[in-house]
Design brief:
Blueprint lengths: L2 E5 L11 H17 L5 E4 L26 H4 E2 L8 E4 L22 H14 L1 E2 L1 H15 L4 E5 L4 H5 L8 H14 L5 E5 L3 H10 L3 E3 L10 H4 L14 H17 L3 E4 L3 H8 L6 E4 L1
Parallel strand pairs: 1-2, 1-4, 6-7, 6-9, 7-8, 9-10
Antiparallel strand pairs: 3-5
Helix pairs in contact: 1-3, 1-10, 4-9, 9-10
């Protein structure tokens, strides 16, 4: 019989939060598990989050019973069986402590903390090979041999929910990109990531040497609809939508981490790109 330590998100917001808010909470728990030298096997469980297929905040229960854990599809991890002992996170304790990972920081300028996070991340959290192959194929085709500026252009609901991190229009991003290119003339390619297709289209139109990955975005809804937290997860227009959202996030964030430079306002994916950074020489946080 094996002993597992179940890292879940039941106490972290309503059905979890955005992908990297969830991810960094789990990483914090992995660091605690590692530092405590626990003899159990950590198991990350997102089966009660908005990333579960069938999630619908307008029905009861919003998350289908006996939902499959999407984390098992994205990452390699041992999965407990009925014969194993599963230890739940202690009841009454906060899932997110905040003294290990501060979600308002990206840690690029804190080498000691970033190294600790990256060490534990690489030890426990390895994407599945089918995802790694997609990342490698895109990198070999578009990134290899180039000096790449990664753009995390947040718009839509982010300007409504997190104005404390700054609000930028499409034109504001284009102006900052031009300034960055002028001051770093070794850059010869731009990689665009955004949850807003309007941002992607206009930035791509303004920079001939730019690329982006086809991923789900839905900007045709009303501003009222898009002001709701986790609004992309509500969509039911494609099969396995929530699972695919997670995979698309992993692919794009891993690619941002492979860029030479990174530009954008602070967000979960921006911090995730720093965490998964491989080639990052400098970041430009707006």
């Amino acid at each position: 019989m094996r002993k597992f330590y179940n890292i879940h998100l039941k106490k972290h917001g309503l059905y979890g939060c955005g992908f990297f808010s969830n991810y960094r909470v789990c990483l914090e728990q992995l660091i605690i598990h590692y530092d405590s030298k626990l003899d159990s096997i950590p198991y990350i469980d997102w089966s009660d989050t908005a990333f579960v297929d069938g999630f619908n905040p307008y029905v009861i229960p919003p998350v289908p019973e006996n939902s499959k854990n999407p984390f098992d599809y994205w990452f390699e991890q041992e999965i407990p069986t009925d014969d194993d002992m599963v230890i739940q996170f202690p009841v009454g304790e906060s899932m997110h402590r905040g003294d290990i990972i501060d979600h308002s920081k990206h840690y690029f300028d804190d080498a000691i903390s970033l190294n600790k996070q990256q060490t534990i991340d690489k030890l426990y959290l390895k994407p599945k090979q089918h995802i790694v192959k997609k990342i490698d194929n895109i990198y070999d085709k578009h990134f290899k041999g180039n000096t790449v500026l990664g753009i995390m252009a947040r718009g839509t609901e982010y300007n409504l929910y997190h104005p404390n991190y700054g609000t930028y229009t499409i034109d504001g991003y284009i102006k900052k990109i031009n300034e960055t290119l002028e001051n770093n003339q070794d850059i010869n390619k731009i990689f665009i990531v955004s949850e807003d297709q309007h941002y992607v289209d206009k930035i791509h139109k303004n920079f001939a040497n730019s690329i982006y990955v086809e991923a789900y975005r839905k900007t045709t809804e009303s501003d009222e609809y898009c002001s709701m937290a986790l609004w992309p997860n509500f969509y039911n227009g494609r099969s396995d939508h929530r699972r695919k959202l997670g995979e698309e996030t992993i692919i794009q964030t891993k690619l941002l981490g492979k860029c030479d430079y990174l530009l954008g306002i602070h967000s979960g994916i921006f911090a995730g790109a720093v965490l998964w950074g491989e080639n990052l020489k400098k970041i430009f946080k707006l």
